[in-house]
Write a structure and sequence with these properties.
The complex is a heterodimer of chains A (428) and B (244). Chain A is mainly α and 428 residues long. Chain A is 42% helix and 5% strand. With 244 residues, chain B is mostly helical. Chain B contains 12 helices and no strands. In chain B, helix 1 (2-19) runs antiparallel to helix 2 (21-32), helix 5 packs across helix 7 and helix 8 crosses helix 12 (207-218). Classes of the chains: A mainly alpha (428), B mainly alpha (244). The A-B interface holds A 65-66, 273-274, 276-277, 328-330, 332-333, 341, 344-345, 368-374, 379-390, 426-428 and B 5, 33-37, 40-41, 45-53, 63, 86-88, 92-93, 95-102, 104-105, 108.
């Protein structure tokens, strides 16, 4: 009898161990720990504010590398001198601790600080003006809830006459139109959500609309692309199918590019990789898809005519040098036919980012290489090595020329001088 | 794709045989720096961003400034990748490349190169005179007690192959790189985790000391066992933040 009992006990213990083991190895088999009951109103607003602050990418500018979040101090080099981004933690003395939700909304909506000074347009209030009062309040609630950091703002180092804020009155008359986003009733809810995010918090126009000599971007040229001042990257046009126009892209590829950082059509690099890394990867699938729907529907217009066949003529010697370098160094990843191994290695054939009129980005990629951003959906991105120490200016120009005209690509040749100019700039 | 690569390599070797030894040796050194991998979804394919400077297996390339990274302790390599990403170690091309890569991925890359055991390149012909090499040997093996300089081998391993988890091997590094790093440490450009033991060492070295130790190190033969020593077999003369 005792033996039977003992056996039963052993069997019971073994069974228990077995069950625990199964549950351990298959976490899904464990009963879900009940999440805290529907979070209270304050928590919900702060959570939403955090999400919206991500969409606005506040952290990218308001934090120095390795520094406390939102404590400011990062230098923003501009053609007019260096701006130092302010502390937006809720510290009473050095941050925005004493601001009210009204103050915060006025800053977002009108570009005017609590003390009445006009903000420099490095703060994208020309975009943030479209943000709704409710969203502004949520971001405010979130910023009030982050740890306060005592860190004095550093004064800007702007050259005369740009250090005179009165000039901003003129700038505002020319380039600033105040007003919350007004939905277009003729468009879908999804399109309107995308438009709200792209035009407002996303502040895409800051880079993708050309900045003129006055540091302004004109609305009639919205999303037509331009060089990013002081970064030496070209932000392609979002409206031209010859640049990053997305008219002939699948929604899935656009959404992937934005949120994953890579797609079957192309890969993000440079400043756009930073945007994906700090901001877009955190957006929901629905919001990213909405942005894709809006971007795809942007009216297509080309700011300049397609290159003539004359302009596309390439010296056969240059073409041969380019082909030889491509076969030796590039074909392993991008394929003999330029088709790549997407999304790991992007295609070069039919890639607008290669053939668009500005060769700046292609030259920089050949010189400095680059990794796509590591994101939640692509945590182990593939990357390209630098070739600046292997190829001279003529070789860089030749291989970039080759990829711009091979495989029915309709780009124009590149001169060694263009490679040389970018070689002298440090990668940023 | 793989087959093409083998064919390409076979053809290259055939051409080498035809043209002569010089081209052959040169050709091989070059091909180490050329992107190549077997499967797209592999760590080998993912680290192609490293190969034109550090070589396919991290063995280094023709360029004397780019260090051999193969076989260095994973902890050391990871610390460097994080420091490059966060800007606490400054070298613009590296800062740019790893700027948007998350910690776990940097760890994976570090572990990948830590596992590699490619052959060591032939040593460079010595340009330093005997006195310099002798001074270098003394510093590396015995230090300079008068100035409180510990021997390299006290921390970097008796075979100079480094120590787990955070101290790099020094064999296979060329003088250009070693001189540059020691100098940057000395002037406060390069830092390690506090307490920064290497700073204490570097600030005790003179410029001729740095030249001497770099010259001697570059003349050392390939170690029989290139693996780093295990952690804390020895008590180190200076406390190092990277060993905690």
């Amino acid at each position: 009898m005792k033996l039977v009992l003992r056996l039963l006990l052993v069997v019971a213990v073994l069974t228990l161990i077995g069950i625990v083991g199964v549950m351990w190895w298959h976490p899904g088999a464990l009963p879900e720990s009940r999440k805290a009951e529907a979070t209270n109103a304050t928590t919900q607003i702060i959570n939403r504010g955090e999400y919206l602050a991500r969409a606005g990418d506040c952290v990218a500018c308001h934090t120095v590398a390795n520094g406390p979040e939102f404590a400011g101090g990062r230098a923003m080099p501009t053609p007019f001198g260096a701006l130092y981004v302010p502390n937006i933690t809720p510290d009473d003395e050095t941050g925005i601790g004493k601001w009210t939700a009204d103050d915060f909304y006025r800053m977002m909506h009108k570009g005017v600080s609590k003390d009445g000074t006009l903000l420099y347009p490095a703060m994208p209030f020309a975009s943030y003006t479209k943000v709704t009062r409710a969203d502004s309040d949520a971001i405010y609630a979130y910023l009030m809830a982050v740890p306060p950091v005592r860190q004095q703002n550093r004064p800007h180092e702007l050259k005369f006459p740009f250090n005179n804020r009165d000039l901003l009155i003129g700038w505002r008359t020319l380039y600033f139109k105040e007003g919350e986003f007004v939905p277009d009733r003729k468009q879908s809810t999804e399109w309107n959500r995308g438009a709200y995010l792209v035009q407002g918090l996303g502040h895409c126009a800051m880079c993708h609309t050309a900045i003129n000599a006055l540091g302004g971007s004109s609305e009639s040229k919205a999303f037509e692309g331009g060089m990013i001042p002081n970064q030496n990257w070209y932000a392609p046009s979002l409206t031209s199918n010859r640049e990053a126009g997305l008219g002939n892209w699948d929604i899935k590829d656009i959404a992937d590019l934005l949120q994953v950082g890579v797609s079957h059509r192309g890969t993000t690099y440079g400043p756009m990789a930073e945007v994906v890394y700090n901001s877009l990867q955190y957006l929901t699938d629905e919001d990213v898809k909405a942005m894709a729907v809006y971007l795809k529907a942007l009216p297509q217009r080309d700011s300049e005519p397609a290159p003539t066949s004359q302009a596309r003529l390439v010296d056969p010697g240059v073409m041969e040098t380019g082909r030889r370098i491509y076969a030796a160094q590039c074909a392993v990843c991008h394929g003999d036919e330029g088709k790549g191994y997407p999304p790991a290695f992007p295609p070069l054939a039919g890639n607008q980012s290669i053939t668009m009129s500005s060769p700046v980005n292609s030259i920089r990629m050949v010189l400095n290489g680059g990794y796509a951003p590591g994101t939640k959906k692509n945590p182990r991105p593939h990357g390209m090595p630098p070739f600046s120490h292997i190829l001279d200016d003529a070789e860089v120009a030749a291989v970039v020329t080759y990829i711009r005209v091979a495989w029915d690509n309709r780009g124009t040749p590149v001169a060694p001088a263009q490679a040389n100019e970018l070689r002298r700039l440090l990668p940023e | 794709m793989t087959r093409f690569r083998y064919m390409r390599r076979a053809m290259q070797q055939a051409i080498c045989l035809g043209v002569g030894l010089y081209v052959c040796a040169d050709g091989r050194a070059q091909s180490d720096a050329v992107p190549s991998f077997k499967s797209v979804d592999s760590i080998e394919a993912r680290v192609q961003g490293c190969v034109t400077c550090h070589g396919q297996s991290g063995q280094g390339t023709n360029n004397g400034y780019f260090p051999r990274i193969a076989g260095k302790p994973a902890g050391y390599l990871y610390n460097q990748l994080v420091a490059f990403r966060d800007g606490t170690r400054r070298y613009a091309p590296m800062n740019y490349l790893v700027a948007y890569l998350p910690d776990p991925y940097l760890k994976e890359i570090a572990q990948h190169f830590a596992k590699q055991r490619p052959p060591f390149a032939g040593k460079e012909t010595a340009t330093a005179d005997d006195a310099t090499l002798k001074r270098g040997a003394a510093l590396a093996q015995a230090g300079d007690p008068a100035r409180g300089v510990p021997a390299c081998i006290a921390c970097h391993g008796s075979g100079l192959t480094g120590m787990e988890p955070g101290i790099p091997g020094l064999v296979g590094l060329r003088p250009t790189y070693i001189v540059a790093q020691l100098t940057r440490w000395r002037v406060g450009e390069r830092h390690a985790a506090e307490p920064d033991c290497m700073k204490r060492v570097a600030t005790r070295l003179s410029e001729p000391d740095i030249t001497a130790v770099a010259a001697w190190l570059s003349q050392q033969p390939a170690p029989r066992d290139p693996s780093p020593e295990s952690a804390n077999l020895v008590r180190m003369p200076f406390a190092c933040g990277s060993q905690r």
